[in-house]
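User: hey, got a sec? need MBL fold metallo-hydrolase folded
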Amino acid sequence: MPDPTVRTVVSPVFGAACHVVSVGRDAVVVDPGAGVADAVLARVAEHDLTVRAVLATHGHPDHTWDAGRLCVAVGVPFAVHEADAVVATDAEATLDALARSDAAAAGVGGALRAAVAASGAGASTPPPDVLPLATPDGEAVLEHGALRVRVLHAPGHTPGSVLYLVGGVVLTGDVLFAGSVGRTDLPGGDPAAMARTLRDVVGQLDAGLTVLPGHGPATTVARELATNPYLRPAP
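Assistant: Yep! Here you go:
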């Protein structure tokens, strides 16, 4: 499969990145956060793409808010790892749960709720058709037209966090950022699981892959393995 073309739309909520990944005319949309649906649909129309699926790297609302609206508009299911399926398919309820957890999570839920309100994105609609992704051996493969998407289970930030590999690109959601990694103090976070993910999943990725995180700039696996303090072995 040739390397994909990636067109990124950044949400006004926490700067969450939504990626339109295509090979030829076949496309998948990854992490449709709040306020991105119109821009995504415009790019799909501009480049004459056919969206085959809407995917999420994990279930947090800043990555799933517009999933229902987008799935209805293009007539495809919403795919998310089965361990995050319940939270991912009701962004409003998940936002409420995060807000209730604020005493233990440094005000993230309240800040997220305020950011969504300020964005003008409106209410989130649950997707009508949800495809829970199973990874019985830690991974799975999705075939969408010319696109072949490898799914690696990468728990820690949430129980159902995944990485999506398409050609020479890996979309890491909130597992891996340029110079940092995802937090584990939100509901469902697990520091021990994150440590295993960083060692056994991220640490085993091909160094030549381009990394597109859920927030912040792109990087490479090679750069992160060499410089990211969370990936370097302890002295």
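Quick note: The chain has a mean pLDDT of 92. Let me know if you need anything else on MBL fold metallo-hydrolase.
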